[in-house]
Amino acid sequence: MALADDLLGQAHQLARHEPKRPKQASLRRAVSTAYYALFHLLLDAVAREVVSGQGQYQLRGLVARSCQHGAMKDFCQTIVNSDGKKLPVPANDLLDRPLSPALVDVANAFVQLQQARHEADYDLSRRIARDDAQELLDAADQAFHSLRSIDKKASQRRLFLLGLMFHQRWNR
After folding, report:
1. What's the Cα-to-Cα distance from 153 to each of 48, 149, 162, rounded to whole Å?
2. pLDDT given at position 109
3. Which residues of 10-23 are buried (b: 16+ CB within 10 A; e: fewer)?
4. For residue 140, what are the CA distances in angstroms to 95, 135, 165?
5. Which residues of the chain have pLDDT under 50?
6. What is the pTM (predicted TM-score) of this model?
């Protein structure tokens, strides 16, 4: 997880790099980097869920490379749209209670940050205010905290992480 933490730290540095008049380049990179920080945090968690044990870096790397931005966003959007009441079918059948608010928070932050990254990287007509960038960085910080606060053996956490990678195949 060192990469994810380093990226999030770098996003914060970029957001406050110019104290009085921040450059758009700094704020745009901060937003984009915050998204990639959360993306890599989730990749690491998914890879560790699929491949356990010490010294499995190369195999975990292959698992991480199999995750797709769009598919992850789709799964997270489904969770956000369900208001945390359930996971998408058929995964919901494995649980008999509403989703943890912490998981919903992570899913919401992922959707929000991916959209903001896209706008920061490609919509040059839109200016980004420092306050808006900071709000997105706060969402990334909270998502990091939320994911890390959930017991690694919790079934909801495991289903969420596996869903990020496999949900498109669950209804086949």
Report:
1. 12, 12, 13
2. 98
3. bbbebbeeeeeebe
4. 27, 9, 20
5. none
6. 0.93
Model confidence pLDDT, tens digit, residues 67-94: 999 999 999 998 898 876 767 667 777 7
Q: Three-state SS string across the chain, please?
A: CHHHHHHHHHHHHHHCCCCCCCCHHHHHHHHHHHHHHHHHHHHHHHHHHHCCCCCCHHHHHHHHHCCCHHHHHHHHHHHHHCCCCCCCCCHHHHCCCCCCHHHHHHHHHHHHHHHHHHHHHHCCCCCCCHHHHHHHHHHHHHHHHHHHHCCCCCHHHHHHHHHHHHHHHCCC
